[in-house]
Amino acid sequence: MRSQKSQNLHSRRKRVGQVAAVAAGLATVLAAPSFAADVSGTLVLLDWASGSEQDMIKALEDGFVKANPGVQFKEINLTVQGDARGAIRAALQSGEKADIFINTWPAFRKELADSGLLKDLGGLWDSAKISDNLSQSWKDLGSSGGKVYGVTYTFGDRSAMFYKTDTMKKAGIDTQPKTWDEFVGNFKKLQAANVVPVAVGAKFWSHTEWFESMYEHLNGVDMAAKLTSHQIPWTDASVKNTLKKWAELLKAGCCGDANTMLAMDWDNASDGVMKAGTYGYQIIGMWNNDRAQATDGLKQGTDYSITQFPAMGAGHDDVSSVDTKEFSEFAGATNPAAADAFLAWITTKDAANIVAQHGLASPSNKVDASLYGPVQKLAADAVANAKLQFVMGDLLPGDLVDEYRVQLQKFLQDPSDATIDAVTQDLETKAASAY
Amino acid sequence: MSEAPAASFSTAPPLSGGDQRKLAAARWRWFADMPAAYLLLAPVLVLFAFSVVYPLIQTIWLSFWDIKGLYPPKFAGIGNFITLFHDATFQRAIVTTLLWTVCTTVLSVTAGWIIALLCSMAPRQTLIPRVLIFAAFGVSEAVTGYIWLGIFRPDAGGLLNSLLQGVGLGALAHPWLGDSATAIWCLIIAYSWAQTGLPLILIFAATQAVPRNVLEAAYVDGATPWDIMRRVIAPLSMQGVRVAVFINLLGSLRAFDTIYVLTGGGPVRSTETIGFFMFRESFTQFKLGYGAAATLVLLVAVLIISIPAIIQRTAAAR
Q1: Alpha helices of chain B — where are they, by DSSP H?
Q2: Whether residues A279 and A415 fall in one domain
Q3: Is A27 part of the contact surface with chain B (CB cutoff 8 Å)?
């Protein structure tokens, strides 16, 4: 009896198990990512891109619609100058309904995720096998608080210094500097040719790039992560020493006078390097690659190129500063099927090649590298072989980020030790209330 | 003994029966007209309620909340106002606002007044210059900003520096907008340039209202054109000057676009007015509560300027 009972029980368990397996299978099929089936309807994109970058977004949309003819895009275009976060917040608070949006600020991603506005893309990442196209480091860069919210579609090598080949020829510089000493040593040659060695457009932002590149090369990515998350104070010796190093550079005549730096925006600085040839180098971000070709009519690798930020010899020269652009999905997306499908599609070969054809670098390992021009290739290789650090300013909370920019402007006006003490103290005071 | 002097309370003679009936009829007409009056006013009142009263109440309400980005707001009471008045950046913005408002008003009204007086001596012949100067007032503030950005930019494309170099004064070329000492003055010049047209038209209109017999009497008495301009037209155009000062003060307090385009409040926040501070805190930092508190301070400043002027003009109208 016991054995028959046991057999019955076993067979019942088996049947239950089979039913459960079928149910689970059915559930899996039903809950399978909707992009596996045909997707359709309107996909609403909150878009703040402009110029040639907007052209690329449009090309991505067209590429996706070609693969999914049932989908049509609707764009909510935000016209912004500078930081777009305010406009995005205003759009969301005023009730704009979008499925997906473009993000480039990790701190903003966290703010949206903490507010419950973003969809956790962990499930999609696995079901759509995005890992086949994007490596773990891109997943980490798109994550906040251990959950992935962003699928990166392009990245910029922010440790790249742009230069014009004619300018270097005029100054008699045949090879680009690999070390800090070589870099500073070239200043005299550039100055003798009436070229200001470095264009720092400090009217709004690009002066922070120099601080960040120096900080990362002197202190490493771990310290940079601690500083941006306020695990170490802004009065830390690492910050002060970095500013002192920059003060040395300023005293060596790197960048012209402070007032000119503070009057120049990104575009003025780019014009100085790429068009007028009155400046030698500029750190600006890879969108300048597209700008140089589209606006200035220059040919990459021939008329201009990039060189990586010089090694400072402090044991952290394997670092590269990067920025990324990612698509994120809103938790309240009205067409989640199409949104999921699009996020999975942008990592594919077709999408990556569209990005590459527009002069930008794609993080997808499916990209056809032969589409890259010489500058894109240099940037992609540099990032592939480095420890990555996201642009530090984009990691800071909203309340601190503007203060960071302004305090570094103050430093440029008077790069003395007293100013360094005052600037770092002011930053720390602000940071104390910002996190 | 206990007779009360009733007349001591009212010196008016008692109304006759007919007068009392007339008064009652007038009162009745007044009450009867009330619904019609409010009906006619209703569209304006509704519009005013939606466009002014509601946003104002919302702003006051927001000013009591600590809002950071899209995070849930926390009630802060008067905390935002306390922080605001201890905020060194805001204190600096108040000083900048005072300098900006006084200088732009003085510059644009003075220039407008002088041009108006000159034009008043030959109204027909100066029609085209007047229209051209007034046209600048019609240009949007943002466009004004971009025009002057082209003039002040630091590189070879900057018109002012190019001109200085062209006339052999290259040593005076300067990054005008990058120097904290010169940036605010560049902004004042740019904004005043655009605003001069309004005082010009207002004051010119006042000069045209000067009675001809007064001018003729002055000529008969042997006054020169300069005397007439200085001693007759200028004093009699003061009413136009007062209106121009009032309007320009309010406009300057609210100015934003020119500052945004030319300097973005920099360098090192040296050109940040209260209006710009409010924008930055509200829409860049998205601290809506803090920005609302700054808005209310600006509103109080506007009211301090407007209320006496409105009272004065209302009294004058009566």
Answers
A1: 17-48, 54-62, 79-86, 88-121, 127-138, 141-152, 159-166, 180-195, 197-208, 212-220, 225-227, 234-236, 238-254, 257-262, 274-279, 288-317
A2: yes
A3: no
Mean pLDDT of successive 10-residue stretches along chain A, which has 435 residues:
44 48 43 57 93 89 96 92 85 92 93 94 96 93 94 94 97 96 96 97 90 96 95 98 96 94 92 95 88 89 96 95 95 95 96 92 94 93 89 89 94 97 96 89
Render pLDDT for A362-389 as a digit per residue (tens, 0 to 9).
999 999 999 999 999 999 999 988 888 9
Q: Which residue of A has its CA nearest to B87?
A: A430
- B71 and A90 within 8 Å at the Cβ level: the answer is no
Q: Is A115 on the interface with B (CB under 8 A)?
A: yes
Name the domain count of chain A. Answer: 2
Cβ contact A413–B267 (<8 Å) = yes
In the block, tokens 């940079």 appear at A224
What residue spans of A68-161 are helical by DSSP H?
85-93, 106-114, 122-127, 136-141
Which residue segment(s) compose the domain that A280 sits in?
A: 160-321+391-434
Check whether residue A341 and residue A208 sit in a common domain.
Answer: no
The closest of A23, A355, A353, A307 to A165, measured between CA atoms, is A307
Interface residue A270 vs chain B (CB under 8 A): no
The structural architecture, per CATH, of the domain B88-317 is Orthogonal Bundle (1.10)
- The domain locations on chain B are 18-75, 88-317
Residues of chain A with Cβ-Cβ distance to B68 below 8 Å are 398-399
* In the predicted structure, residue B310 carries a pLDDT above the cut 60: yes
Nearest to B179 among A203, A259, A271 (CB): A259
pTM (whole model) above 0.90:
no
What is the average pLDDT across B260-266? Answer: 93
CA of B249, closest CA in chain A: separation in Å? 28
Is residue A13 included in any domain, yes or no?
A: no
